[in-house]
Amino acid sequence: MIGYNTSMDKIVECVPNFSEGQNQKTINAIFDAAKTVPSVKVFELEFNADHNRMLFTIVGEPDRVLLSAFEAIKVATELIDMNKHKGEHPRIGATDVVPFVPVSGVSMEECVKLSEDLAKRVDAELGIPVFMYEESAKNPDYRNLADIRVGEFEGFKDKMRKPDFGLAQIHPTAGAMVIGARKYLVAFNVNLDTSDIGIAKDIAGKIREKNGGLPGVKALGFSVDEKAQVSMNLVDFEKTNFDEAYRAVESEAKARGVAIISSEIYGMIPLDALVRAVKTTFKADTFKSDQILEKKLYE
Amino acid sequence: MIGYNTSMDKIVECVPNFSEGQNQKTINAIFDAAKTVPSVKVFELEFNADHNRMLFTIVGEPDRVLLSAFEAIKVATELIDMNKHKGEHPRIGATDVVPFVPVSGVSMEECVKLSEDLAKRVDAELGIPVFMYEESAKNPDYRNLADIRVGEFEGFKDKMRKPDFGLAQIHPTAGAMVIGARKYLVAFNVNLDTSDIGIAKDIAGKIREKNGGLPGVKALGFSVDEKAQVSMNLVDFEKTNFDEAYRAVESEAKARGVAIISSEIYGMIPLDALVRAVKTTFKADTFKSDQILEKKLYE
Fold first, then answer.
1. How many structural domains compose chain B?
2. What is the ipTM of this complex?
3. What are the DSSP calls for A251-284, one per residue?
4. A-chain residues within 8 Å CB-CB of B281?
5. Residue in chain A lying closest to B6 (CA)
6. Of A44, A88, B133, B233, whose CB neighbour count within 10 A is largest?
7. pLDDT at residue B7, rounded to an integer
8. CATH code at B50?
């Protein structure tokens, strides 16, 4: 019997990053280890030889995603020796950083708890010290990933700050690790009907949070195919979703006499972002993702 | 192992209607029979004692949905005797009408084929004559359900027109049946900030297809909670989706100096309708349902 016999009420995403982007055998072994856990989906493997780094995405129920990440971390710990690792990208360990991201039916608190549960296992079973970052940060100095990484693996050999789990001493081959929870990032671009990149930069400057614009919006102006593009990262779609970002760009563009050619949602997006966009745009206050027919199939 | 080991590329919906709305044991037996087929979802059972009629929804892969509908039809054929049936709603058989509706990855042609496959089995294995309606109609006189039903079960005993499958002679207890394929119907209401129902009726008259308005749009004006409501059935959301209907109502309301309070999508809606609304509204031409994270889980 082919079964859909698990409830998928709670879904999280995890995007572990490992310090291997050259040895295909090792890359596959780590990716395959994540896949050994039933009923999670493991996909979007990316690796880069110059960075000597790989990452992929795991989605599914919280407990199973944790298990899948742990299986991959175990294999990375066995196969990667950081003493021999060279790459352009800053890193502190064989498994470098493991973020958990709420997708649906899961609070940030639950993702923080999940990241802590994984950190405890990594410390206890693998003997790798763990720093907690972003929403999981216990020490404000560790909130920002770049701040934790200062000194990298090589610097940590001589001197390492006190981690949140484990001793202030790296694992001899796997180094140290960063684990945490963060919000889902939606990549969203709006293409303007002008070749004047100045207008895109101007609009980006106006709408980005840093300059007092929309909450959770990072924005830059680019030139793509000879057209000006406002390229955005929406780091908190519950505060500013893609439809709101679109309308803000549209209004700024209109004030400058410029029309929108198209927009693009880049990469994956949680269903909830779509549902929110429909609710807001069409004042459909009562609309729920449970009304989506396909969702019934997987309850 | 909990598995998601079937591809859900093709999804259809089926909403079979049976002539039983009073005997709870029979109602349950028919509903439960549909559920015996693995990996389809059977839900939204509705029944009405006055109409003496029940219906429910089956969604899943085409072959399995057919099987699920057939299991329910078999039990309805065993348990319902039309000679004893009384009810307000017109009907011609124990299983009265069985529409198949494309939801995603399925063409109307495939749904027509599916309806014919079911009709052949109903004729061959159960000996019930079948009329094909809507998109599956072979005889233009049978396209409209109400036209087929003229005379009902009682009239068919004496005189029955030639069906598309089987003989022009009813099954002694189960009567005859209507099977076919039709498009998905989206129920969509827009609530206006006025108590003047005349404005809702006026806008409804302007946008409905019958009067040269939007293709596939049926619209009526109502008064709901002392506010005017434009209530629509979108019978072909690939031609006119809810976002387009919303903008049409918005524009007509604006011309009459009236604002929109809210809108509501009523009941279930295919994911594709949401994806289309996002594409159209935000000029996101490249957006695909495959970009929805939750969908990855069920591939």
1. 2
2. 0.83
3. HHHHHTT--EEEEEEES-B-HHHHHHHHHHHTT-
4. 243, 281
5. A2
6. B133
7. 52
8. 3.30.990.10
